[in-house]
TrEMBL record:
This is tRNA(Ile)-lysidine synthase. Its EC number is 6.3.4.19. Keywords: ATP-binding, Cytoplasm, Ligase, Nucleotide-binding, tRNA processing. It catalyses: cytidine(34) in tRNA(Ile2) + L-lysine + ATP = lysidine(34) in tRNA(Ile2) + AMP + diphosphate + H(+). Belongs to the tRNA(Ile)-lysidine synthase family. Its main location: cytoplasm. One of its GO terms (cellular component) is cytoplasm. Ligates lysine onto the cytidine present at position 34 of the AUA codon-specific tRNA(Ile) that contains the anticodon CAU, in an ATP-dependent manner. Cytidine is converted to lysidine, thus changing the amino acid specificity of the tRNA from methionine to isoleucine. It is found in: Cytoplasm. It comes from Tabrizicola oligotrophica. The N-terminal region contains the highly conserved SGGXDS motif, predicted to be a P-loop motif involved in ATP binding. GO terms for molecular function: ATP binding; tRNA(Ile)-lysidine synthase activity. The lineage of its organism: Bacteria, Pseudomonadati, Pseudomonadota, Alphaproteobacteria, Rhodobacterales. The gene is tilS. Residues 28-203 form the tRNA(Ile)-lysidine/2-thiocytidine synthase N-terminal domain. ATP binds at residues 33-38.
Length: 413
């Protein structure tokens, strides 16, 4: 579908239906801020998947009006028989990019909400306008193909699938739909506030429209770039399936394979490994990646982004760096951003790193992998007592799991 602000109602319903061509997998979360895009998404989802929709609102607390806007969404949901919950963020860190922190908090809160309700899929209301604005913002940062490929129609985070079914729909079409249905929405004042890059970009986009560079045209070009990126990622995933081994959350690949890759495929394979192992939301800086690649070409050890790279007989192992692993979480939680443990619940138990101390409590660990790898795997503890370390051979009835294999991760990120 070519982006258009004149999409008929049937086209909007078709865009939603295409999200789950075989039918919804179960209950579906719909993220609703109260703005026009997300309100239209919620109403459309209720028409297409009437028995499956749950709604959630993330209140970042960054504006004084946000609580009232969340309450308006709650009232709309109550009037339409939809289960709704408001999730509240308890504020940014003292340093760092506020908007980036807010975006990550939103994903974290939504994923935790979904896991607690057995929801595997969440719909987001991004539009073709958002796609075009994102393109201009990344273009201003001299981004490459990945950045210019824009917002992805689907992605996975923390075991939850997120969908953007309206990426080929213009914002104006959604507001026309809401007006026809008699549904109100909230206009976020930050969208007009020039202190924010997206607001400035939105005004620039409007100024470019007379040249033929409107949001619809740019979004269509972004879609073409995304197809090129997908083809490259498919090649990397194929290399991963054929040449990269997985062991206890680490990856192994022969140096000869690495040396034979083209520059771009080599880059992408390492970026994928960094993100799969450490859970990074973004690739490293180019200068950092260049230094890493130079060290690996010389068969030297290296660390980057919480991942350790080391060699044995010209075979490279990429594993979690011990000092970078996460702290303890509840037994039923997600440890180090990616591991879950299945097995009997134990009162007072916590999930955390096995570590060198725990490894000494695993008499058969040498049969399961290198110490540097196993020490960074999940273990179940009650105080100082090791209950289970399934990847090191301790704890019958327990299994440690990752969200997805490395090759699948590359395709979905």
């Amino acid at each position: 579908m070519t982006p258009s602000d004149g999409v008929p109602e049937a086209g909007l319903l078709t865009a939603l239906s295409a999200t789950f061509p075989d039918g919804p997998p179960g209950r579906i979360g719909v993220a609703v801020s109260g703005g026009g895009d997300s309100m239209a998404l919620l109403h459309l989802a209720l028409r297409v998947f009437p028995q499956h929709v749950l709604a959630l609102t993330v209140d970042h607390g960054l504006r004084p009006e946000s609580a009232a806007e969340a309450a308006q969404v709650a009232a709309f949901c109550a009037a339409n028989g939809v289960s709704h919950q408001t999730l509240r963020w308890h504020g940014p860190a003292p340093t760092g990019n506020l908007m980036a922190q807010a975006r990550q908090a939103r994903i974290d809160l939504m994923a935790a909400w979904a896991r607690g309700r057995g929801v595997t899929d969440i719909l987001l209301g991004h539009t073709a306008d958002d796609q075009a604005e994102t393109f201009l913002m990344t273009l201003a940062r001299a981004a490459g193909l990945d950045g210019l490929s824009g917002l992805r129609p689907q992605f996975q985070a923390q075991g939850i699938r997120f969908h953007r079914p309206l990426l080929q729909v213009m914002r104006a079409a959604l507001r026309s739909y809401l007006a026809a249905e008699g549904i109100g929405w909230v206009d976020d004042p930050t969208n007009e506030d020039d202190r924010y890059a997206r607001a400035r970009t939105r005004k620039t986009l409007a100024a470019l429209a007379p040249l033929g560079l409107d949001a619809g045209t740019i979004a269509h070009s972004v879609r073409n770039l995304a197809m090129s990126r997908q083809a490259l990622q498919a090649s990397v995933a194929d290399i991963a399936r054929r040449h990269v081994g997985e062991l206890a959350g680490s990856l192994q690949v022969d140096g000869e394979v690495l040396d034979g890759l083209t520059d771009d495929l080599h880059r992408r394979l390492l970026i994928g490994a960094l993100r799969w192992i450490a859970g990074a939301s973004h690739p490293p800086r180019e200068a950092q990646l260049d230094r890493l690649r130079a060290r690996l070409a010389g068969r030297q050890e290296a660390t980057l982004g919480g991942v350790r790279f080391f060699w044995a007989k010209d075979r490279l192992t990429m594993a979690r760096e011990g000092r970078a692993v996460g702290g303890t979480v509840a037994q039923a939680g997600i440890w180090d951003g990616r591991w879950t443990l299945q097995g009997p619940a134990v009162q007072g138990a916590t999930l955390g790193p096995l570590g060198a101390k725990g490894l000494r409590l695993c008499p058969e660990w040498r049969h399961h992998g290198p110490a540097a790898v196993l020490a960074t795997t999940p273990a179940l503890w009650v105080g100082e007592t090791l209950v289970a370390a399934p990847l090191a051979g301790v704890g019958a009835g327990y299994t440690a799991r990752l969200p997805q294999p490395f090759a699948e991760f590359i395709l979905s990120h």
